[in-house]
Every structure is written in structure tokens, then in C-alpha cells.
Write a structure and sequence with these properties.
The complex is a heterodimer of chains A (289) and B (353).
Chain A: H1 2-11, H2 17-42, H3 59-66, H4 68-102, H5 105-120, H6 123-134, H7 139-147, H8 160-184, H9 188-196, H10 201-212, H11 214-229, H12 233-239, H13 246-256, H14 260-288
Chain B: E1 4-13, E2 16-26, E3 31-35, H1 42-50, E4 57-62, E5 65-66, E6 77-80, H2 92-102, H3 107-120, H4 136-148, E7 154-158, H5 166-183, E8 186-191, H6 194-200, E9 203-208, E10 211-216, H7 218-223, H8 228-233, E11 238-244, E12 248-250, E13 256-258, E14 261-262, E15 270-275, E16 281-283, E17 295-306, E18 310-317, E19 320-327, E20 339-344, E21 349-352
Parallel strand pairs in B: 3-8, 3-9, 6-7, 7-8, 14-21
Antiparallel strand pairs in B: 1-2, 1-4, 4-5, 9-10, 11-12, 11-15, 12-13, 15-21, 16-20, 17-18, 17-20, 18-19
Helix pairs in contact in B: 2-3, 2-4, 3-4
The chains are: A mainly alpha (289), B alpha+beta (353).
Chain lengths: 289, 353
């Protein structure tokens, strides 16, 4: 790696340009230009389509601050992001630990495949299969009633827990993968060294393994938290009436109400808030890592 | 501080017998080397003593207390790993403090003990550094300080000098020996480097295929190896195979070799003799019979390797190549292809059953 850096600094950026150009050209055309258009839209009174009248305005941003509904929804979306991230840590980290440090060979590959599988299935299919499991008279309800001697009624459909379940299922693989990578890089002899110094397995976990897996936990959390805060599919399908979140409101502006300027403004406010949160968290997280 | 007794310990991994009925007594305060080629079971034995792995059968005692089912964290041992295994998320001082801090010692006590340990390994000023800012030799010292600061009963070292370059290794050998003497801790040291084993330890145990081949002080093993393997693994040896005569062996071509050390083998049984290359004299003409060097063989120099202070001659004789090491005394050097006479004393000839 030192050699590569040395070569890079000696030759400068020029020889790297042909390698960088395709990616940056693509990013410019496919992301930067449309995003700029969205910034533009967010300051408009209406879409400049079909000869409609339009003017510049700050009204779309003002709407966020003048109506408490939006900030309330944003707060509940942030809470949703936090909760889903937390569950992903609680479920994903132990799985990553077992994959990286306990299992070997074929059984590791098999379990790994099961973790990745949700990635390979269509998101909608995944969510609708949860709907089949969670609704009254659904798979979970029927199965529990078949086993238990007393009658219970499980209807999680259209509830906050259903949204959490669906989102955790969609995003937990990110946590498993990022944590697996950092855990695998931790030398087993560090664990043995800790124990030879008189530390119990639990002490080794808290004082050596978890601090060393911080980069994976942080990367996984960022990968999960950001999209969950803006998510709309899982809340809409699994949450029903309780599933109104910031993301679903944005989606409504684009898909139902056709108020792109407001949708765009709300999106950029979300982006700003997420960036501020990540920036505030960075120094704390860096110290922990 | 305490001695370690290993009695009839066996350990198998599947069909592979990593340790097969091994017994060694490590006396209190001694410096032991476990020497053997890779796969000989030396590291497995060390891991049984440390408690990372439990034996299938046998007994392990530290300071007279049976520990073969006690997990590593309760054995009060100190261990230095081959790759040092320093915690990369902690400073040097925190690494050394780890063992004391998990025990819940007071902060002031920890700080004082850590400083003492770092001073002992001559790193007193580097407590604030991170492991990745240290050289290999410094990491080694930190690992040692971390292992001894908890005042363990035994110090276990798993090829600790393997990752260092030659010059640094010699420094660390001296340093390690000094520290071991200073604190008087029983030390068990795994290595595949015979020179390291010879120069550092009070006693050596040679392992092969999971069995203890020979155990004793370095001089004893070198001068009186009990097997061809011990003779050739620790140092160099010329091996002759033949039939025992009662006072030596008779080679297939009728030559007799007298041996006055080693095992006693009944006449007629198969036996071999080992002779160290530096014990053999090499000369050109037929010298006068010399009772002190009664064993003589004729041969032809096939190769000479000059190494400054000595030369190694490879001498061909009846399908066998013998090795002879001659000190550089200024005497005339022999040419390749020259006919020579080799002679050595029966006292330098070890009979092996």
C-alpha cells in the first residue's frame, strides 16, 4: 500500500484520470444533474409543465417550519431509524460474531447464504410475504394457535411493530456484513491474549472485541439509519394508517399529490438533518472506534 | 512462581494424535525450551499448559495444583504470542495494564506496576504510544511486560522471536534471559530454532510426532543423543548404521567403529552411531595409529564450504557422505577430490539403540 501511495503522489492525478472519468461522468449525468434539477424545483411554486405559471419561492421550505405536522413526522421517522438500527445491531452483531469467529467451512457458507438471501429477493415480495405472516388468520396467528392450548389473537398487521419487523428484515444484512468484515479482521490471538491475562470471555468481548468492531458497527448503522429515515414502502404496506412517516409524505407529494416542489423541499430538509446528525455523531463515534 | 508437571498427556484432533502420552517435569524457576519440527506437538503442549485446550487424557499441574480442566483465565499464567497479539485499540500502557485492570486493581496500583514492568523491559518512556507505532522488537518487549505484570506462576512463550530479524533476535535472547533471571519465573519456550534452544534454556525437551523424544540439559542432549532424530535435529551428526558388537558397531562392509558413550546394546542387535562433525579430524596421509582417535575411515573430499572461521568438508566414503567441520587454524586447506583419512575418538562416538 505504501508503494501505491508513493506512485500516486509521484505521478499526480493525471494518469488516474482515465480511470476516474467514467465513474464521475456517470455520477454527473445520472445523479448530479437530476439532483440539481430537484434543488431548482424545490424553490418553485409549481412544476413548469404544460405551460403552467411558476415563480421562485421559499414557500416550500416555509411549509416545513410553519406546519408542525412535518417536523412531527420527521421526528417519528428519526425515531423509527434509531429503533430499526438498534434492532439490527442487537440481531446482526451476534450473528456476525458467530459467522466470523465460531463457524468454519461449509456451515459458515450456508449460514452466510441465508443472511444474504433477502438481498436477492424483490423488496415488494419480501414485504407482502410479511403481510401474509403478520395479519390476523395469517401464518404466525395460525401456527401459534395450532401449537398453544389456549386461543390467542395475533394481528400485527398495520401496526408500528409490523413496520419495524419489515424494516429490520430488509436492513439487517447490512449490519451482519459490515460487522462480519471487521470481526473477521480481528486476530483470534487477541482473544486468547485477553483470556491469558485473566479476562473472562465477557470482559474480552467488552474491552477488546466490541471496541475493535466499532468501524463495522458504525458503517452498518449509517447504511441502515439513513435509508430507514426516508423509507416509505415498508411503512405504507405494513403500517397502513399507522404507517404515515416522513418518507411516505414525500412519496405522496411526488406520486399522489403531484406537488414535486414541496416533495423536493422536504427531501432536502431530510438530507440536511441526516447530514447534521452524522456530523454531530462523527467525533463521538471516532473516539469510540 | 511454581513448577509445572505434565503427566501422560494425550490430545488427538480427529485421527491425528497431536500429543501422545507426554510427561515432562518443569522445575520451579527453570528456563525450558520445547523444540521440534512443525507438527511435532510443541505448540499443542504449550496450549494445554496455558489452558486454551484441554487434554484428552493425563494430568497437568501448576504449583502442585491440578489444572487440566481449569480454563485459561483462571490459571494465572503469562503468555507471549508469536505475533505479539497486542491490543491495537489500546496504548502501550493500557495493554500492559489490561491484566491488572480486569482483576479490578486500584488505579494507582496499576499505574505503578505498569511503569515498573515497562522499565523492566526498557520501554519506560513509551507508555503513551500505540502498538502500531512500535518496532517489532519493542512490540515484543511490550508483550513480555504485559505477560509478567500480573505476576503469573508460569511464563509461556510461543516462538516469540520468530518474527524478528537475526541481529534483533540475538539481542532479545539475551534480554529475555536477563528478565527471566531477574524475576525468577518458570519459563516454557516453544521454538523450532535449535540454536535458540541451545543458547537460552536450562533444559530442552525435543518433540516429534506428538511424543517426547528426549529431555535434559542442552549439553547432555547434544553430547549424548538417545536417538538418530535427537542427534540430527539438535546440531549436525554423522550417523553410521550396523550391528552392535558390544563395544561399538560393525558396518556392512566390515569396518568396526568403537563407541564408548551412549546406550548399551547387546551384541548382534541393530544399532547406530552418531559423531558430531567437529569431533572428526581430517588428514591427508596415513597418520600413525593414535589410540585417542582409534576410529579411522578413508574417503575422498567431494565438496568444501568455506565459512570464515571454519570449513565444512563433505567426504564421500562407500556411498555415504560424511560431514567434517575444521576450525580455520591457518593450516593448509584440502582440495576437492583429495583422498583423506578421517579419525575420531570412541569417546566422541555415541551408540544409539
Amino acid at each position: 500500500m505504501a508503494d501505491q501511495l508513493a506512485i500516486g503522489s509521484r505521478r499526480g492525478l493525471k494518469p488516474a484520470l482515465p480511470l476516474l472519468l467514467p465513474a464521475y461522468l456517470w455520477l454527473t449525468v445520472a445523479i448530479f444533474l437530476p439532483l440539481s434539477a430537484m434543488v431548482f424545483f424545490s424553490f418553485m411554486t409549481d412544476l413548469p409543465l404544460a405551460g403552467k405559471e411558476w415563480a421562485f419561492t421559499l414557500g416550500n421550505y416555509e411549509a416545513f417550519f410553519s406546519q408542525s405536522l412535518y417536523s412531527r413526522l420527521l421526528l417519528s421517522s428519526l425515531r423509527l431509524g434509531l429503533e430499526v438500527t438498534l434492532w439490527c445491531v442487537v440481531i446482526g452483531y451476534p450473528a456476525a460474531y458467530v459467522l466470523a469467529k465460531v463457524l468454519k467451512g461449509r456451515s459458515r457458507e450456508a449460514i452466510f447464504l441465508l443472511v444474504i438471501l433477502p438481498f436477492w429477493s424483490n423488496g415488494l415480495v419480501r414485504i407482502f410475504s410479511w403481510a401474509m405472516v403478520l395479519r390476523e388468520g395469517g401464518i404466525l396467528d395460525t401456527a401459534l394457535n395450532a401449537v398453544l392450548p389456549f386461543k390467542i389473537n395475533i394481528d400485527l398487521m398495520y401496526s408500528y411493530p409490523a413496520v419495524i419487523i419489515g424494516l429490520v428484515h430488509s436492513y439487517v444484512p447490512y449490519m451482519v456484513l459490515t460487522c462480519y468484515l471487521t470481526l473477521q479482521a480481528i486476530d483470534d490471538s487477541l482473544i486468547e491474549a485477553g483470556r491469558s491475562l485473566g479476562a473472562s470471555r465477557r470482559q474480552v468481548l467488552w474491552r477488546v472485541i466490541i471496541p475493535l468492531s466499532m468501524p463495522g458497527l458504525i458503517a452498518g448503522s449509517a447504511l441502515i439509519f439513513v435509508p430507514v429515515v426516508g423509507s416509505f414502502m415498508e411503512p405504507r404496506i405494513l403500517g397502513g394508517r399507522t404507517g404515515t412517516f416522513y418518507g411516505t409524505v414525500i412519496e405522496d407529494q411526488f406520486a399522489a399529490v403531484f406537488n414535486w416542489p414541496l416533495g423536493a423541499a422536504l427531501s432536502f430538509i431530510l438530507l440536511a438533518v441526516v447530514l447534521i446528525i452524522l456530523a454531530l455523531a462523527a467525533p463521538v463515534l471516532r473516539r469510540a472506534g | 512462581m511454581a513448577g509445572v508437571q505434565v503427566a501422560n498427556v494425550s490430545r488427538s484432533f480427529g485421527a491425528h494424535k497431536a500429543l501422545d502420552d507426554v510427561s515432562i517435569d518443569f522445575a520451579d524457576g527453570g528456563f525450558y525450551a520445547l523444540l521440534g519440527p512443525s507438527g511435532s506437538g510443541k505448540t499443542t503442549l504449550l496450549r494445554q499448559i496455558a489452558g486454551f485446550d484441554f487434554p484428552d487424557a493425563g494430568r497437568i499441574a501448576i504449583g502442585g495444583e491440578s489444572v487440566e480442566r481449569v480454563p485459561v483465565e483462571k490459571r494465572r499464567i503469562g503468555m507471549v504470542f508469536q505475533n505479539y497479539a497486542l491490543f491495537p485499540n489500546m496504548s502501550v500502557a493500557d495493554n500492559v495494564a489490561f491484566g491488572l485492570s480486569v482483576r479490578g486493581e486500584a488505579k494507582a496500583t496499576i499505574a505503578a506496576e505498569v511503569q515498573r514492568a515497562l522499565d523492566l523491559v526498557q520501554l519506560g518512556k513509551l507508555g503513551g504510544r500505540r502498538p502500531h507505532q512500535l518496532s517489532g522488537g519493542q512490540r515484543q518487549r511490550v508483550a513480555l511486560a504485559r505477560a509478567i505484570v500480573t505476576k503469573p506462576r508460569v511464563l509461556l512463550l510461543d516462538e516469540p522471536l520468530g518474527a524478528l530479524d537475526k541481529a534483533l533476535r540475538v539481542d532479545m535472547q539475551i534480554e529475555l534471559k536477563r528478565i527471566q533471571r531477574e524475576i525468577g519465573i518458570t519459563t516454557i519456550f516453544v521454538t523450532h530454532d535449535q540454536e535458540e534452544a541451545l543458547t537460552m534454556s536450562d533444559r530442552i525437551g525435543i518433540l516429534r510426532d506428538g511424543r517426547l523424544v528426549q529431555e535434559g540439559p542442552p549439553e547432555e542432549i547434544y553430547d549424548r543423543p538417545q536417538s538418530e532424530f535427537a542427534a540430527t535435529f539438535l546440531g549436525d551428526a554423522n550417523i553410521f548404521r550396523g550391528d552392535a558388537t558390544g563395544s561399538g558397531i560393525k558396518l556392512p562392509d566390515g569396518t568396526t567403529i568403537a563407541a564408548s558413550t551412549g546406550a548399551s546394546v547387546p551384541a548382534g542387535a541393530k544399532a547406530s552411531c552418531a559423531v558430531r562433525p567437529e569431533r572428526i579430524r581430517i588428514s591427508t596421509g596415513a597418520a600413525k595409529p593414535d589410540p585417542a582417535n582409534a576410529n579411522t575411515l578413508k574417503g575422498q573430499v567431494s565438496k568444501r564450504i568455506f565459512a570464515g572461521n571454519n570449513s565444512t568438508y563433505f567426504v564421500d566414503r562407500d556411498g555415504q557422505t560424511l560431514k567434517v567441520i575444521v576450525q580455520n587454524t591457518g593450516a593448509e586447506r584440502l582440495a576437492e577430490g583429495q583422498d583423506v583419512v578421517l579419525s575420531w575418538s570412541p569417546d566422541s562416538t555415541v551408540l544409539i539403540a
